[in-house]
């Protein structure tokens, strides 16, 4: 995990049954994406994206994770084998990042959530005009 700066905090979180736990370095005020693709809309998934180096699974979490893919099989939708909650995944939009379900962050560290719409139904045209790919880049 990268060093924190004055604008970032360590968030912890995970799934409902607490078998999957993680920590992520990210701002306390985030931009979360409400995606309308077939998978995210069914799950009600609204997520924020961080560089992969800022995300770390804790303990034995990897034993409890399974992965679902569809379409291009680029996105890796991970979820807990026990409770079924998808607390994070590896998005198609940011192959160098992790998408964290903001509602799975433990209370106390998120101070503000700006929700933006992601048009996953029209992914190619939306992606090309969006700035989502910048969210997984390490700030220098």
Provide an overview of this structure.
This protein is mainly beta and about 140 residues long. Helices cover about 10% and strands about 35% of the residues. It has two helices and ten strands. A five-stranded mixed sheet has the order 8-9-4-3-10. Strands 1-2-5 form a three-stranded antiparallel sheet, with no helix packed on it. β6 and β7 form a beta hairpin. The longest helix is centred in the C-terminal third of the chain and has 7 residues. The chain is globular and about 40 Å long. The protein starts with 7 loop residues before the first strand and ends in an 11-residue tail after the last helix. The mean pLDDT is about 90.
Structural classification: mainly beta
Strand proportion, as a percent range, falls in 35-45%
Please provide the count of β strands. 10
Largest sheet: 5 strands, mixed
> Could you tell me the mean pLDDT?
88
Low-confidence stretches: none
Helical residues, percent? under 10%
- Oligomeric form of this entry? single chain
Number of helices: 2
- Choose one word for the global shape: globular
C-alpha-based Rg, rounded:
14 Å
The end-to-end span amounts to: 14 Å
Task: List SSEs in N-to-C order.
Answer: EEEHEEEEEEEH
Q: Trace the largest sheet across and list its strands.
A: 8-9-4-3-10
């Amino acid at each position: 995990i990268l060093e924190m700066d004055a604008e970032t905090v360590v968030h912890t979180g995970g799934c409902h049954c607490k078998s999957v736990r993680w920590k992520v370095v990210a701002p306390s005020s985030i931009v979360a994406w409400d995606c309308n693709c077939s998978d995210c809309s069914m799950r009600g998934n609204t997520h924020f994206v961080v560089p992969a180096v800022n995300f770390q699974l804790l303990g034995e979490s990897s034993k409890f994770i399974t992965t679902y893919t569809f379409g291009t099989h680029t996105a890796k939708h991970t979820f807990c084998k026990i409770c079924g909650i998808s607390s994070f995944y590896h998005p198609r939009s940011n192959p160098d990042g992790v998408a964290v379900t903001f509602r799975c962050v433990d209370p106390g560290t998120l101070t503000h959530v700006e929700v933006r719409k992601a048009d996953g139904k029209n992914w190619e045209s939306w992606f090309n005009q969006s700035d989502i790919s910048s969210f997984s880049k390490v700030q220098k």
